[in-house]
Write a structure and sequence with these properties.
The chain has about 150 residues and is of the alpha+beta class. About 30% of the residues lie in helices and about 35% in strands.
Length: about 150
């Protein structure tokens, strides 16, 4: 099936359904940390969403916030791809779109938090050029600098 890439198409229900299908991939499971319905509704109403769709199925999602009035930090709150769709560079394409969005909007950095035990996610972020920052427990902050040095 052909993929369609969209921005801000998903509603809270589609996001919740997607998150439930991806739940076991998160370290620890996302549902152990947040109420998926509430989290999906918050993303639908407040985040910028970069999405991959196969028909009516949301197969990939990068959600973030680029609303710091001082344009310092934008935040990625979610990166997920349905298990059957992994390995097709969907997360790469969606994360690239968020980074481009933040850069175009004039932000200095993209920041995210990842569990330090999630080697697969950390490898993806390192591939993009994110660097490890502070940690608290198993939560590791990673940062991507959007400023180009002159």
């Amino acid at each position: 099936m052909t993929l369609a890439f969209n921005t801000n198409r998903a509603d809270a229900s589609a996001i919740e359904t997607h998150l439930r299908a991806c739940d076991a991939q998160f370290v620890p499971h996302l549902s152990d940390r947040v109420d998926l319905a509430v989290y999906g509704a918050k993303m639908a109403s407040q985040a910028v969403l970069f999405e991959a769709w196969a028909g009516d199925t949301l197969v990939g999602l990068v959600a973030g916030y680029a609303n710091d009035p001082k344009k310092h930090d934008s935040f990625v709150t979610n990166v997920s791809v349905l298990p059957d769709w992994q390995g097709q560079s969907i997360a790469n394409r969606l994360l690239s779109a968020f980074i481009d969005h933040a850069r175009t909007a004039g932000f200095e950095r993209v920041v995210l938090s990842v569990d330090a035990r999630n080697d697969r996610a950390r490898a993806l972020y390192h591939k993009f050029g994110f660097t490890d920052g502070s940690s608290e427990g198993t939560a590791l902050e990673m940062t991507f600098n959007l400023r180009t040095e002159k």
